[in-house]
Amino acid sequence: MNQFRPKGFIRPLQPELQSIKRAMDTALIFITLYLSLNIYEEPFGREYLGLFIVCTVLFGIFAEHQEIYHGWRGDPLFDDAVRILLSWIVAFALIASSFFVFDLGFEYSRQVLELWLPLAPLSIIMLHSLRRSALSYLRMHGLNTRNYAILGGNSLGKRLNAALTEMPWLGYSFVGFFDDCIENKQRRLDEDMVDVIVGDFKNLLERAQEGEIDHIYITLPLRAEKRINQLIRELADSTVSVNIVPDFFTFNLMQSKLSSVKGIPVVSVFDTPLNSSLDGAAKRLEDLLLCAIILPIIAIPMLVIAMAIKITSPGPIIFKQMRYGVKGEQIEVWKFRSMSVCENGDTIKQATANDSRVTPLGSFLRRTSLDELPQFLNVLSGTMSVVGPRPHAVAHNEYYRKQIQGYMLRHKMKPGITGLAQISGCRGETETIDKMERRIHHDLEYIRQWSVILDLKIVILTIFKGFVGQQAY
């Protein structure tokens, strides 16, 4: 029989604790609104009560989507803070839009809203931080801990244990590696695992039944399907949580997801991070908000550049070129003309150092990336995104897709004005396959790791790293 152990006292209360978290966040939203009203000596009328209710409901919906109240205890605090901030901003943006559409803004004090906008999410983030710190302290001192064991003496098990060991604040205590391969002649242990196995499966099952283990991670290879099924059936005679860790690292996964078709589990190997309608909407909203901020700032510089191009060299101001967009569909990308010729055919020569085709003004525009500014109009039209893999000319795509494995996977997302490759130093001419492979590596890594937070980080770093470079000519 499993005995009650005080060290895991929080687990049975998880549903109640999640409700308490929501209630405390709701209370903070109300308190910060009330404080904002008092600071500016505004009465708490029915209009503000309605605003509080609507904002709380919207924030709750987006917070639920961001899994703020269902996150794993190992989620970084920064990620939690960003999810809170994003949920609040989206909720507030929808309310602000309704003010504009229905002409309701006159009912509310602008000063109050300007104070409440940052105060509410910062208060919630601070509360979550304090709660995390308290739980981490308890776990570091042996309370609210979990014992885990790994079944499988292989490199995958080592990687998993190393990852969990690096996060002591999670309160996970490692019992040991278990493997019965010594008796099973069909499978061998990894050489460096021979001395760290503390027992076989029989020992593991006994300790699980005695309540000494909370979580078991099975890291056996996929080919051991029958053995895994047998182990799971036997572990059902305990209350331990069983987790299968499939070794998908043998595949070049990109946005891998687990889904089901009428109960049949399906693992996607190559996928887009924007399959979710909410993620797609978040990415589009991000693009529109960034355009709303950036376009008024660059409008006059764009006009000056357009006039300078017209004065300094004959030809059109805007250069339009066909490139591949999302799903490999061809799109027309706009740039300020920086060359004396406009190539848009099956064979296009990349710009090189001291290229005679580049005009003097064009050289400056290319070096500072100012020639890319018209692409914000592409973003508005929906064919591009502010952040994403840079679009290549169709001719270059057709060449490199035959040379680099996985090249076309970069088209699982819309092309961008800037991207992870650009802030990582991959700009300018790709005269060797190695340089293009490095760029593609960053593009695919961006798609694997995509989030709104990563996009904002890239936008900020572009200001300092991405605009000017000696490799751009």
UniProtKB/TrEMBL annotation:
The chain crosses the membrane at residues 20-40, 46-63, 84-106, 288-309. The keyword Transferase applies. It is found in: Membrane. Its main location: membrane. One of its GO terms (cellular component) is membrane. InterPro entries: Bact_transf (IPR003362), EPS_sugar_tfrase (IPR017475), NAD(P)-bd_dom_sf (IPR036291), Undecaprenyl-P_gluc_Ptfrase (IPR017473). Pfam families: Bac_transf, CoA_binding_3. Belongs to the bacterial sugar transferase family. This is Undecaprenyl-phosphate glucose phosphotransferase.
